[in-house]
């Protein structure tokens, strides 16, 4: 779960990271009142859960009331990468000399958290990582001990941070690590961490993504979850209790088990298609669950074909087949071609039961995926 900038910033500030003063506003009048009390110049920043708001026109620096009014009027209600801006923060502008980057994430390859520091803040850090990986200093962290002070200092020296601010940046990095660990975050990031013309270090932006599976440990974050701006389909998936991620391709994918679904995604890609989603219906895929899964993929307008990849374990292939038949017979017309591959317990019985008026059955996963990719390509043509 992604927090809004203002939510993450409050958390960072509570932990002791210096942040500019800001107020949340939902109307032009509220923006003007906030700016008045903070004093001009201020930054007006759209609160939507996407990165790169600056480039997309969601952030404006204003010097007086007339500018603030025009900016607030433009930003409130604007569409920012598919999200409608309903809130902004009005924040003291920072007179900065330099923009740094600090972040904590999980390095899956190393199986350890990693703390990162760079002098090249203020820009897309992924682009920096690609163009010049050495521009980002990294320290892996043993979670039993946390980020040691010497590690923070080493990363800062390696990143080439000015000695005058090294101590302050080290403190921010260590605090950020503690917030990251204490929040069960997947990522915590400050980009830019500004160095002001007075030599102060201040967090001008804040990113914090929390592991949803750990939310039960953070009742204080529960209110943020409710207002989570989900995609309509992701909201539905949440309601049905599926693990679902919407992607932007055309081949809908349904499977039972995360690994199986991932494999199917890879194969769709391998055969030249583009996955429309990740959808894991989990174990015990009974008819109602299958119907819900189909409802999900069918209501994604990008989907042109659907591939089912089911491995019968405790859930037997014949049960799943009945579920698919039952679910599909609820539709007057099947809106998109459905291709099914069953394996595991009772797969043969399952294949015999499947109603081939409703679905296409393939024996191997490769054939099923290829068929689905072809079907999607035909629709596109
Ligand atoms: P993002 O584009 O969504 O990552 O939002 P940021 O908060 O990082 O803002 C983008 C950019 O706005 C920063 O990198 C700064 O270069 C620029 N900016 C200029 N003046 C200010 C200021 O006073 N405050 C903030 N927050 N950003 C500023
Ligand atoms: Mn940023």
What would you say about this model in short?
With 381 residues, the chain is α+β, with helices and mostly antiparallel strands. Helix content is 38%, strand content 25%.
Report on this model:
The protein is of the alpha+beta class and 381 residues long. It has three domains: 20-92, 2-Layer Sandwich (Dna Ligase, domain 1), CATH 3.30.1490.20; 96-219, D-amino Acid Aminotransferase, Chain A, domain 1; 232-380, Succinyl-CoA synthetase domains (Rossmann fold). The protein has helices spanning 5-15, 28-38, 65-75, 125-131, 149-158, 163-182, 222-226, 232-240, 258-270, 287-298, 317-329, 347-353, 365-380, and strands spanning 22-25, 42-46, 59-62, 79-80, 83-84, 88-92, 96-107, 112-118, 136-140, 185-196, 201-203, 207-210, 243-246, 251-255, 277-280, 305-312, 338-344, 360-361. The mean pLDDT is 93. Manganese (II) ion binds next to loops.
Question: Which secondary structure elements does this structure contain, and how are they paired or packed?
Answer:
Layout: H1 5-15, E1 22-25, H2 28-38, E2 42-46, E3 59-62, H3 65-75, E4 79-80, E5 83-84, E6 88-92, E7 96-107, E8 112-118, H4 125-131, E9 136-140, H5 149-158, H6 163-182, E10 185-196, E11 201-203, E12 207-210, H7 222-226, H8 232-240, E13 243-246, E14 251-255, H9 258-270, E15 277-280, H10 287-298, E16 305-312, H11 317-329, E17 338-344, H12 347-353, E18 360-361, H13 365-380
Parallel strand pairs: 14-16, 16-17, 17-18
Antiparallel strand pairs: 1-6, 2-3, 2-6, 4-5, 7-8, 7-10, 8-9, 10-11, 10-12, 13-15
Helix pairs in contact: 2-3, 5-6, 8-10, 10-11, 11-12
Bound molecules: guanosine-5'-diphosphate and manganese (II) ion.
Manganese (II) ion binds next to loops.
């Amino acid at each position: 779960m992604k927090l809004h900038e203002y939510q993450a910033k409050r958390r960072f500030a509570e932990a002791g990271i210096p942040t500019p003063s800001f107020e949340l506003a939902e109307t032009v009048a509220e923006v003007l009142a906030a700016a008045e009390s903070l004093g001009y110049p201020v930054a007006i920043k759209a609160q939507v859960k996407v990165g790169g708001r600056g480039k997309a026109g969601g952030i404006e620096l204003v010097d007086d009331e007339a500018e603030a009014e025009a900016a607030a009027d433009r930003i409130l209600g604007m569409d920012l990468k598919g999200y409608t801006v309903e809130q902004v923060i009005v924040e003291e502008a920072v007179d900065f000399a330099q923009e740094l980057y600090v972040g904590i994430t999980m390095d899956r390859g190393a199986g350890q958290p990693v703390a990162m520091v760079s002098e090249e803040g203020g820009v897309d850090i992924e682009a920096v990582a690609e163009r010049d990986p050495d521009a980002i200093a990294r320290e892996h962290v043993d979670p039993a001990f946390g980020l040691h002070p010497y590690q923070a200092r080493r990363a800062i020296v390696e990143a080439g941070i000015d000695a005058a601010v090294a101590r302050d940046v080290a403190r921010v990095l260590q605090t950020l690590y503690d917030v990251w660990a204490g929040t069960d975050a997947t990522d915590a990031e400050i980009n830019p961490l500004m160095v002001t013309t007075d030599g102060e270090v201040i967090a001008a932006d804040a990113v914090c993504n929390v592991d949803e599976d750990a939310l039960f440990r953070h009742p204080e974050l529960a209110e943020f979850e409710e207002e989570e701006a989900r995609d309509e389909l992701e909201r539905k998936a949440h309601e049905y209790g599926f693990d679902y991620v919407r992607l932007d391709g055309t081949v809908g994918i349904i499977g039972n088990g995360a690994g199986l679904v991932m494999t199917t995604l890879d194969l769709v890609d391998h055969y030249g298609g583009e996955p429309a989603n990740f959808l894991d219906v989990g174990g015990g895929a009974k008819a109602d669950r299958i119907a819900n899964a189909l409802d999900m993929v069918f209501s994604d307008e990008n989907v042109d074909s659907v591939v089912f990849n089911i491995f019968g374990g405790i859930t037997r292939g014949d049960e799943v087949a009945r579920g698919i038949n039952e679910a599909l017979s609820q539709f007057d017309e099947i809106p998109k071609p459905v291709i099914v591959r069953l394996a595991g317990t009772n797969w043969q019985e399952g294949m015999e039961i499947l109603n081939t008026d409703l679905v296409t059955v393939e024996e191997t996963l490769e054939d099923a995926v290829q068929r689905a990719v072809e079907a999607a390509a035909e629709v596109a043509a």
